[in-house]
# Entry
Amino acid sequence: MEMYKLDTMLEHPKAQATDNVTTLGICATMALMDNQQAKREDMKWLAGFFEGEGTMCLSQRSSGNGIQPTIAVTNTDKDLIEAAAETINNWVCGCHVSWYPERYLKSNSKAKPFGRIAICGYKRCSRFLANLIPFLKANSQIQRATLLKAFLDSRMNREFQRYDDTEIELAEAFWKVNSSRRGLRDQMPNIREKVSRMKIESAPIAKA
# Structure
């Protein structure tokens, strides 16, 4: 049998080369499928973790009148924070991890050190939400994420322009569903006045 295979290879070298290409194509397809499945499983886990420990916000920029997005995840378990950060970096976008130990313990002796994953910038936040939304389960989280992504995508398509009425409405709608979050509730009454007078040059631009 082995001699027959050798004779066949010698008689039809082109056929052997074609078989090799086909085999490589099948292997590449299987590897891609495995990769997609691995990403899907990781994103399902990340979505569950985010629904329990994550936050989304739109806040006024420290300089200028523009609105900036921030998505964050906090937890006291170092392994969980590192696993989540690795998942985000591997499959979605860049993120920044900060650790908060002693200075947060002085006012509350029962508090534990915690880690915080931050995703900043319009492009990064939009990319993160696009990957996360399909795996979210809670309707409230889906609503927040969908509104935030719509606002971000609109801004990225209208760089260097004033916030239009649709963007103001999206921002207000997002703040309303986030009304239980401290700080955001205080911004809502005068947000339309603030946003309406924002200058073109102070509007946040998607550079991330």
The beta strands are 54-60, 67-75, 96-100, 114-120. The mean pLDDT is 78. Helices lie at 2-11, 13-53, 78-91, 122-132, 139-157, 165-177, 184-187, 191-196.
